[in-house]
Design goal:
Organism: Chromera velia CCMP2878
Protein name: Amine oxidase domain-containing protein
Bound molecules: flavin-adenine dinucleotide
Strand order of the largest sheet: 8-7-16-17-18-15-21
Largest sheet: 7 strands, mixed
Number of helices: 9
Structural class: alpha+beta
InterPro entries: FAD/NAD-bd_sf
CATH architecture of the largest domain: 3-Layer(bba) Sandwich
Number of domains: 2
CATH superfamily of the largest domain: FAD/NAD(P)-binding domain
CATH class of the largest domain: Alpha Beta
Amino acid sequence: MKSKIDSSASCRVAVVGAGVSGLQCSRDLLSRLSSLRDETAPSLKTSFHVSLFEWGRGPGGRTARRRVKVEGEEGAVGELSFDHAAPFFQTETGTGSIRPLSMPCPSPQSIESAQPGTDEEQARQLLREWESSGWVEKWKPVELEAEWEEGGEGHGNRNVGKDLAGQQSSVSTETDYWVGVPSMNSICKGLAAEVQKAAEVEEYFGCHVLSVEGEESVQKWKVTWRERGAKEGEEKFEFFDAAVLSDKLLIQDNKYGVLPKSYEGPLSAARELKSTTVSVLLTAFPCGSLPAFGILRPRGHPVIEKVVCDTEKPHRAKKGGPVCLVVHSTEAFAKRHLEGDWFRDEETAREEMERGLREVLKKFFPPEGVVSSPVVPVERESDADPKAERGEGSSDTDGTFPLPLVSIAHMWDCAQVARPETGTTMQSSGKGYLLDSAQGNTGGTIFLGACGDFCASSSWRGEVLGAALSGRKLAAALFDRFRKAHTACLTQT
Ligand SMILES: Cc1cc2nc3c(=O)[nH]c(=O)nc-3n(C[C@H](O)[C@H](O)[C@H](O)COP(=O)(O)OP(=O)(O)OC[C@H]3O[C@@H](n4cnc5c(N)ncnc54)[C@H](O)[C@@H]3O)c2cc1C
């Protein structure tokens, strides 16, 4: 964490959230504002300042990865890495006609001066920047899907796949898959590194923003936060000319909300938005125990929506190492196990997902394709029963299935913005961000903005990309307002 906020800066912006949208917004704002400083008055070195607040210990948000310690057969301690939130992001084939990596990265100036185009063009531009920076690559996974039919023989009332191995099809989609390299959070790490280079930035990781309220006496936004581990009563606050909220939970009327309940400005359009709920199982099997695949989709399975093989993504450590899988549950399963923002009973949910995974793998790859392997001890992250963490003791372990090296369940109560067809996505914005402004008595203007996946155009399929685009658009809009205010101020003097 860098030192004090520069309170002499004439324009101070607080960005809450270091996910892809908050970081893209901060990065673009800093680069645009510094070009304004250079254009108009190089001496205005401290005329603006961005403070980035993030509850997590590092950047990433819902592109975070999770590292898990595992003890190998020889007793050596290894570490496995899982993309435990967004496994990838998608673009329609054709939208991502990306220039080859060998071509030079566009300079910040050319990015800033690019004429605003359609969402499609702007997204292509963003992808080009990310790809040229080496943060993302296209992934061509072996994608298998099959219908999971009801009432197969020998399985009682459970839904089972009937002769799935025969029916499964290799999917030919019109979707391009993109992944962060070497992990999904490379985009956020890369953006954070660019943000850190700026002199006019302050980062507050591990800080929970509690409230953002207009303070009439100074005509500023008062941002109050508490550091991790600090007690009640140890809150800190600072005043800002603009505040950016990059998570819809910050706007909503719940325990995470930071705006006053009485707030009725444009950001309140995001108050009623709904999210999907997903639980994920992070698991790994010994090298060579599963046939190679990228994504499995057992359509109609009651528990498993998809299985993603992280090890098959580009630039993941794989030679001779374990096969890392991230299993995404169906929404119905996650909702059945959700209580508050976590599992009602984590162990039961994890065991159900483990059983579901075994069913799915056996159907896609009948037993002869799956190699049994010895038990390998696991270094536990939690106090859970070590047998349970390895999947031992689960009722249908039949000895033909490899035992997992690790098995951890995680609940995402707000995973993705609910789809438009459910009628819960915000249609009103259209701009890709939300912006509110208030005129103070002495003529100054203060801004309150929101960006993130929940602001992205409803037709946008890739939420990671949509979130970043939203951050970029908000930065451009804020910059425009600052430039006008700045020009007016220079004209007056
Ligand atoms: C399981 C799962 C599967 C997904 N699958 C896909 C997919 O297939 N394709 C796709 O494109 N997208 C997918 N997504 C969605 C994608 O990850 C998000 O849309 C995108 O990352 C959102 O970025 P964001 O910046 O809008 O929000 P976030 O990444 O959530 O960033 C918001 C940040 O704000 C911080 N924050 C919140 N409140 C506070 C506070 N009070 N104080 C300080 N900090 C705070 C949070 O810690 C967080 O880091 C998936 C997500 C999940 C969880």
